[in-house]
Amino acid sequence: MLLSHALMLMLAAETPLAEDALERIQVTGSRINLRQEQLAGVGPVSVIDADAILRSGATSLETLLQQLPASAGAAGSQGNAYWTVNGFGTAQVNLRGLGINRTLVLLNGRRLVAGGTGANSSVDLNMIPLALVKRVEVLKDGASAVYGADALAGVVNIITHDASAGGELVLRSGATTRGDGDSNAVDGTYGWRNASGAWTVGLHFSRQEAVAMDSRAPCSLAAIGQQLVCSGSSNTAGGRARLADGRRINFIEGGRYETYDVLKHGFNSNTMLNAVNPIRRIGASLFGQQQLASGLIWFNELLYVDRSSAQLASPGTLGIFRPMTIAASHPTNPTGQDLVLERRRVVEAGPRDFFQHTKTARIVSGLRGRLENGWEWSAALNWARNTGVDGMTNIINLDRVAATLDTATCGRAGAAPCGNYLGLNSLTPAVLDYLHTTVRDHGGNSQRSAQASVSGELLQLPAGALGFAAGVEVRREEGWRNPDPLIVARAANVNAQDPVAGSYTAREAYGELSVPLFSALRASAAGRYSHYDLFGAQWTYKGGLDWQVFAPLKLRANRSRAFRVPTVPELFGGVTTGNLTTTDPCSGWDKLPADSVVARNCRAAGVPVGFRQLGNTILTTSGGNLALKPELAQNRTAGLVWTPARSVTLTADYFDIRIDNAIESVPGSTKLASCYNTPELAHVFCSPSSFTRDPKTGEINFLSSQPENVAHQRISGVDFGALFDFALAGWRMSLAADATRLARFDIKPYPGGATIAYAGKITGGRGSFARWRSSTTLSAGRGAWSGSYGLQMIGKADDINGVKANAGARAPSVVYHNASLRYAVSPALTLSASVENLTDHDAPFIQSWIDANTDTMTYDLMGRRWQLRLAYRF
Length: 874
Fold this sequence. Notes:
CATH topology of the largest domain: Maltoporin, Chain A
Radius of gyration: 29 Å
């Protein structure tokens, strides 16, 4: 599916061209425009072209980019189910697994505004309709010296189609073979050209329908040895309570109760969730250029996208934030004892509905030209703004609960209705209406910038032209978010949030050189000065060598210094509290060997014998930190390109990235595991500032995860690529393969702390870091027919929090099969069909599952699905 750009450059270099046929082009990773014959490798770059996009069957940029072997970790999910800093429904790319905010995303070489529902950390790929994309260039190397902050892991540069005369209508429709997950899209473009300009206007629509979670995962599973059993949430429907004599009971119908049993009374939330949630996008675009005078061109890019998305959530729960004490004398209490209602799922109200509606607009307008000496210049203004509203239905107003239990006033005229919370279906419609409300939050992001640049050849050296580029940029980024008044600064409410508002301004200047040392050896150097009003000055650099050792073999190497500034939510975000999937290592500690580190630590911490974690979530707090400073990174790459024959090209590139002063929020499961696996509870994560337990029950009642500049990260590995073109029985054939071997992914969460090794692990919230990932595609074409067959492989990985003796401690290697077929009925009409996950491979069970009993950020939930596409040009 992928073709290394370096491979294309090698092939181009071997093709004899007339001098006047050589064009000046720019590749991702460099701002220098040189003639094709003088292009040198700028680092490991992969290109996904329009044909590969069509063959992939992908319906969005997100799904396309997450198939890259260089992608890893968490970047949202196939099901549009998770949030990334107030960004439900957003779509991102995560190169190397270093985080969505360490991958810089560009559109035609320029920055994009962050997207979501306010104060977000990364670009929302939903804003770019797939029909606009001509190709995607992925630079898997640090590039802060060339592009500025945030390019620690690499750069994704999305290139749009050139303007062309005439129109095109593309219809796309698909679904799963189980009869759900319908998807539809309509894209229409029309272009016109004349002697002095070319313009294209487009209208875009796409929609993905829901897939019910219980159709893929009927219940939440827990491993008991190698046996998998349904184990629901401890937030039960009838209500779980602790009596004054210490017994834990669960209420059922008619005010009856019995001893609480996690397997019997657990709530199956899968019946009220989606594996894939609905999303709809409507957009409009205008791209074009007009020649104003000889050597002077006015260019414009206008893009607008309206997104609506939604997610189902299980019914709200009482008792999480405010334990409910109900006296023995209360008329609804049948136990004869005072009790504490620990958890009570309000199933009578039905599921909660999350919803989002975002609008994103971007305008780029500028001038570019070419001087008589061949130098090129450009100047542009970039304005972009994203606004959004998100909310949730059936939110419980906890301030009203107490009023429904006050027997002195409830039920009277003008007062709250009386509520009975002890028993299944015991709450009346009047109480439900009184308790529940819909909350709405508003927010957005904005970006304003001005850039100017020049590029050309300074002089001719004996070995070739000395290339040069320089430029300046001023950019202002802003983010804001205003939660519903009901939940602002109210720590007692679910997902409590404070308002967020912040901005920063960057002023930057850069320079770049491409120096031919010998006819076969070229050096490159780049430097950038960046000044941020919040952080002061930063210097970044990049240096590289590109050596054509002999005709078939080229060697390349780069070293760079990169940085990332903290995002608006990392700096200004208020405290947020919510239940996150977390594994408590002390659950069942009394069944472990008595001399094990975990058993000794849990005993020393006072965790009661017989303690079992109730459910799979723990209440966790997170938020911003104004004391954060920029992250700094050192990147090294070294590789080779081997072309033993014109039709065969092989590449291998070693990468090594070290991030210091890293901003880190360690997932709760990892934080707890680090604490209890350290002898004598000596880990810093064992401090009360990290988590606390209820001294009576042993349950974790506070778990904090807030970012700090305390981490150190080191990642290294090798990217492999292969391309083989050949003919077979009259068919044009091409075999393309890309693979990534992750050698290490180590995080030291604080100075002197123990290193957490993520390589080869699934990390319970951070995603998968399988050591091997690959993508292989065999393409064929003959006359009007063409097609492809692709394999996407995700290697085996261990659950970093898993119990080895139980099922789901290791995920096996998974291979997804994808196929496509295309037929050109005429020069104007093309029909295509594709099938993803051809073998209907189920997602593997993972003990530290995110949802649907698996890692939804890594594995496919939809199963086998098909898509039909019709394209008509006029």
